[in-house]
Design goal:
Elements (H helix, E strand, L loop, with lengths): L3 H22 L12 E6 L6 H12 L12 E3 L2 H10 L17 H10 L6 H18 L2 E4 L13 E7 L2 H11 L4 H23 L10 E4 L5 H14 L7
Parallel strand pairs: 1-3, 1-4, 2-3, 4-5
Helix pairs in contact: 2-8, 3-5, 6-7
Length: 245
Amino acid sequence: MLDSTTTTKKASHRNLFEKYFNEVLNPQAPKQIETGPYISISRDFGCMANSIAQKLSVELSKYNYNRGTQKPWTWLNNSILLASAKTLEISPSKIEYVFQSQKKTMMDEIVGAMSAKYYKSDRKIRKTITDVIRSIAKSGNVIMVGRGGVAFAKDNPQSIHVKLTAPIEWRVEHISKNYNKTKSEALRYILEVDQERKYLIDSFMGYDTDLSIFDIMFNRKSMSEEEIITIILNLAEARKLITKK
């Protein structure tokens, strides 16, 4: 039986999670639609996406959503980790391994269950993360950067799934400069992270994916952020994610 302290603590975390959705994703708290407009941006390592997502959210918010609401667009990245950790009532550091394509071993599970007061199984952690991302995708007017976001809302006609890529040589140069690595170190780092990101998407999708899961791909070496954003906006209008006047 739960004591009053434990019950109060759980209620507090639930309130924090509800506040996250109400204030960050849905300020006016309208009734959640079943398939809200949604954009995922996946990227090869070295193809930065946060700036594109931020600028795109501003541009999308200028247009009325075609169902008549003025709800602004927002973009998310690390917020997924924080929201999932709040729901599980554990530190974000305890679950970030999922986004690094790692899995708890049986020994990890046993030791964790014996030593941690608020132990959560790998299965529960992954299910919670999946549920959080699904809820965010359904809430609408959201741009998801990474985090396997392409695996969600694939059957939603009001969704766009973007892939940012670039030649390996360009990415090696970029990572070498920005992470203070030699070119050989940068190459190994790129291959490792690319593999992790694909594994994450595959684990959410449930099969070995290929590039056909994306609607559109952009070469970050040859295309500017403004060009990419313009094309996504045009596609968003064609798919009725926004209505331009």
